[in-house]
Amino acid sequence: MRGSAFWLVLKETDPMDITPGSMVSVKVKRSIVSEKAAKTLSRLFAKDAANAPLRRKRKKLLADGLDERRRGGRLWEVRPKAPRLIQPKTGDTCKILATTDVIGDLKSVARYVEVK
After folding, report:
1. Three-state secondary structure of 49-116
2. How far is CA 61 from CA 57, 70, 72, 75, 87, in A?
3. Beta carbons within 8 Å of 113's beta carbon, 6+ residues apart
4. Are strands 23-28 and 93-97 parallel, antiparallel or unpaired?
5. What CA–CA distances, in Å, run from 63 to 35, 41, 59, 94, 113?
6. Distance CA 115, CA 86 (A)
7. DSSP H or E segment with residue 11
8. Nearest to residue 111, comparing CAs of 39, 45, 47, 28?
9. Which of 3, 26, 78, 98 has the fewest Cβ atoms within 10 angstroms?
10. Which residues partner with 28 through β-bridges?
11. Which SS3 state, helix, strand or coil, does residue 3 take?
12. Which pTM does this prediction carry?
């Protein structure tokens, strides 16, 4: 198929039909092999209200790790990599609000999760 017709067919056969603004339950159904998928799931599970304390801890760790140095007469901020405190395993579940960015992330990790 050529042009935008391919995307129309892809959109029509989309198995994950989620409306933005609805609450969805996400369950990890198999072990995560890809590092990209693990990061995406970590980001999705962090949006769950039950993980709010871990989000606050992550924010504090990032702020504490900030290092300012002088470089060429100017302040230079050395920022640490964000720690991944939430690492979902097989069988873990979370309940999140389905926004457009969440729907895109869920589609990218569809082979690892079950969405209800």
Report:
1. HHHHHHHHHHHHHHHHCCEEEEECCEEEEECCCCCCCCCCCCCCEEEEECCHHHHHHHHHCCCCEEEC
2. 6, 22, 27, 21, 17
3. 26, 27, 28, 29, 41, 106
4. antiparallel
5. 25, 23, 6, 27, 32
6. 19
7. helix 5-12
8. 28
9. 3
10. 113
11. coil
12. 0.79
Amino acid at 98: A
Q: 14 with 59: CB under 8 angstroms?
A: no
Quickly state the pLDDT bin for 4 (edges 50, 70, 90).
low
- Tokens (6 digits) for 109: 């990790």
